[in-house]
Amino acid sequence: MHFHAKAVLLKLLQDSIDFKIKFVDGQNTQTIGNLKDPKSEFEINVKNSKFYSDVLLLGNLGLGEAYMEEKFELSHGHIEDFIEALLKCHLDEKLGKDWKLLFKIAPFRIKGFFRSNKKNVSSHYDIDFDVFKTFLDASLTYSCGYAVQESDDIDTLQINKFNRISKKLELRDGETLLDIGCGFGGMLIYAAKNFKIKGLGITNSKNHCEVGNEMIVKQGLQHLIKIELIDFKEISGVFDKVVSVGMLEHVARSEYSQYFKMISKILNKSGRGLVHFVGANTYKNDHDYFIQKYVFPMSNQPKLSEVITELENNELFILDIENMIRHYGFTARQWLAKFRENEKELKSFNGKFKKMFEYYLACCIAASNGSDSALYQILFMKDKSGHIALSRV
User: Fold this and answer.
1) Which pLDDT tens digit goes with each residue over 61-106?
2) Sign of CA dihedral 373, 379, 385, 391
3) What is the bridge-based pairing of β-strands 176-180 and 198-203?
4) Are 61 and 289 in contact (CB under 8 A)?
5) What's the pLDDT at 293?
6) What is the pLDDT averaged over residues 360-372?
7) How many Å apart are CA 115 and CA 76, to the nearest integer?
8) How many CB atoms within 10 Å of residue 246?
9) Residues 121-146, buried b or exposed e (16+ Cβ, 10 A)?
């Protein structure tokens, strides 16, 4: 079985990739592919022959679990670059054009389909707060930053983002700002310190609420901003500006209408808002089973068309749409470097968990550069005759 899986996988890769892979399997060595870029050369040391069938069965989930279980290791190259190189080759698209190879792979994929939907998506890790402290910036912001230059560190990336969002929203002294899904309050703290707004953040996380309010007190900003433990459906009042960063991905599709209806209701007549979310930049929205199982179960990647429809239906007039997906690559690369540097501090976590989280961050980098994912920022306003800047921030 494993010998057959190896032959099929190597044939698939040989016919599809534009980079070079050297497989070292015990005493056997086999090199496939063509080297176009010195950065795209990898050497895989296969430690367990189930590696081949795992990848054929479950694609990225199989590769990720094989990495977690150390069924292989990269003795040359980095896992994030390897995943990106695979994504850029569009293996699934090429597979559909080769019926002979598709016939050989079908038994593996059929078995993997039933396993993926029934078994693999049924469990995930409950990630501890200590993990986030190993790789996030000082504000503990867990969303895509903004790179002004490639050398920006993780703290600078997030400050750049906060500043850019503030300017897009045209925040003014004394205005009220609602942050939906505010995390630990990094955006609120920045806006209060630099633009003197009065703000409210809401979250469903008790930990975010408690730690975020502690951070606000330490900054001496409790007279201007606070975080409350409530769901977006419970929001009341009226606000000048609304922001939501990395929240929409976790809203059920059936609740999109309610989400944007709420925003329209609480914005004052001259108000404006901004939603920032990881989206699907294609006609379909395929979920990655590895991410669904281990990191964000039941999460979505909204299509731009879905969000635009809801904005139109709720008379929220679009000012600007920006796809910042490459900035997620810069952000995730900083996260991964910091995680690798600090993972030794996670003494209560086993090696399998650490490999899982490393693989997840590697997927974020790869997807930012080689997939059909998007990172959208959509700016909108309530008053269709309101002020529109002559140029983008």
Assistant:
1) 899 999 999 999 999 999 999 999 998 887 665 544 444 444 444 4
2) negative
3) parallel
4) yes
5) 82
6) 94
7) 31
8) 18
9) beebbebeeebbebbbbebbbbbbbb
Least confident among 108-112, 136-140, 165-169, 305-309: 108-112
Task: Give me the pLDDT at residue 126, please.
Answer: 40
Q: Are 229 and 209 in contact (CB under 8 A)?
A: yes
CA distance linking residue 28 with residue 45, whole number of Å: 10
Contact 361, 252 (CB under 8 A): no
3-state secondary structure 122-179: HCCCCCCHHHHHHHCCCCCCCCCCCCCCCCCCHHHHHHHHHHHHHHHHCCCCCCEEEE
Residue burial 23-57, b: 16+ Cβ < 10 Å; e: rest: bbbeeeeeebbeeeeeebbbbbebbebbbbbbbbb
What is the Cα–Cα distance from 271 to 269, expressed in whole angstroms?
A: 6
Paired tokens of 345: 């501090």
d(CA 169, CA 162): 11
Residues contacting 149, CB < 8 A, separation 6+: none
The two three-digit tokens of residue 288, written as one number: 């990655």
How far is residue 19's CA from residue 262's CA, in Å, rounded to a whole number? 49
Residues in Cβ contact with 141 at an 8 Å cutoff, skipping those fewer than 6 apart: 158, 161, 183, 184, 186, 187
Q: Is the pLDDT of residue 35 over 60?
A: yes
Give the predicted TM-score (pTM) of the model: 0.88
pLDDT digits (tens, 9 = 90+) for 116-137: 433 433 333 245 778 889 999 9
